[in-house]
Amino acid sequence: MYELLKGTRILDLTTTYLGPYATQWLGDMGADVVKVEPLTGDVGRSPLPSRSPDMGAGFINANRNKRSIAIDLKQPRGLDVVLKLARNADALVHNMRPKAAEKLGVGYDGLRGLNPGLVYCFSAGFGQDGPYADEPAYDDIIQAMCGLASLNADSSGAPRFLPSIVADKVVGLHLAFAVSSGLAYRYKTGQGCLIEVPMFESMVAFLLVEHLAGRSFSPPLGGAGYDRLLASNRRPYRTRDGFIAIMPYTTLQWTRFLECIGRDDLLAQDWIKDPVQRSANVNTLYGIIADAAAERSTAEWLALMEERDIPCGRVNRLDDLFGEPHLAAVGLFQTTIHPSEGGMVAVRSPFAISGVAQGPDRPAPSLGGSGAEILAEAGFSSSEIEGLFAHGVVRRP
Asked: Which of 114, 163, 174, 219 is most buried, by the most CB atoms less than 10 A from its CB?
């Protein structure tokens, strides 16, 4: 945990993966993230594998550097607790639809009156100015609607989901950026703001950076879709003993690659020397790589490409990553002891920051584990805290 956001308090009402992934980044940067859960816990706690029913692997991997308090928001006293916490927060984050937030009593208009400096960020499925504003959405729905499943179609043309909650995580990064930007605005002006980060629009904008392509122009110079990425021969290439990714990109890299495979006959061709013509013929070039790849082993290709400074990489399976020498050298995987779950392997924050103090990460919190501490910090007396526990307003740690 770095101390870039030390002294900043985030009230985190997010659930599942999108929101918790976003607020974990803020916690990694030193923010005090107070995770507000229902008495039964974030639904993201339950998916397997797990040692305990409410501490699934996915939850643990998206909720480090947070403290948890579990509150029954349907009780008036529960809402009062959250409102008191919001008065002293720098930012509030959720991934509910606005109507659901309003129903719970944590809509923007009400909280702005309590805390004019509050940075209020939320990520619903769809922007609130469009006809889908009230529609529910999860990762698979957004992968389908934004065009990603179609881009990932199989050989028969049937669309497929990526085997990753990529929409949740990409939009989670958008949400973390939005909160950070809102906090910068607050620190400069003392004023809060409302930032909406809709999943659908965020994923469409993410994909169309390159795939807007010919539709970037008016009138269009062609359809949407970046030809290089859609080329049929763009794929991991089969070697003599496995698969590899090889990607010459510049004229010099293509020259070196063609010399390496004995295709000097192509070097004088304009469609090789000129980047524009090379782009137009990229599928043919990828086919040349595919034909050549099978002649050598993966290790031989890695050595040859490294020698010629041509980008390449072994195709790893997920389990291969734990033996990957570079990841071992940078210490990406860390062995830890979780207070309730025992021995764990954690993936640390990928950032490396110099000139900023760094402390140990907080493990993912048990359900309501910091409830008493958070209530005391908010100004509740010992008797008030005990009353909240006794009446089931706040879950007793």
From this structure: 174
- What amino acid occupies position 381? S
Helix, strand, coil tally for the chain in percent (to 5): 45, 15, 45
Q: Specify the CATH number for the domain of residue 288.
A: 3.30.1540
**pLDDT tens profile 70-101:** 999 999 999 999 999 999 999 999 999 999 99
Q: 112: domain range?
A: 9-206+330-390
pLDDT tens, residue by residue, 104-159:
999 999 999 999 999 999 999 999 999 999 999 999 999 999 999 999 999 999 99
d(C-alpha 267, C-alpha 9), whole Å = 60
pLDDT, position 333: 97
* Claim: this prediction has a pTM higher than 0.85: yes
Print the SS3 string covering 313-380.
EECCCHHHHHHCHHHHHHCCEEEEEECCCEEEEEECCCCCCCCCCECCCCCCCCCCCCHHHHHHHCCC
In a domain, 132, yes or no: yes
Q: What is the pLDDT of residue 315?
A: 97
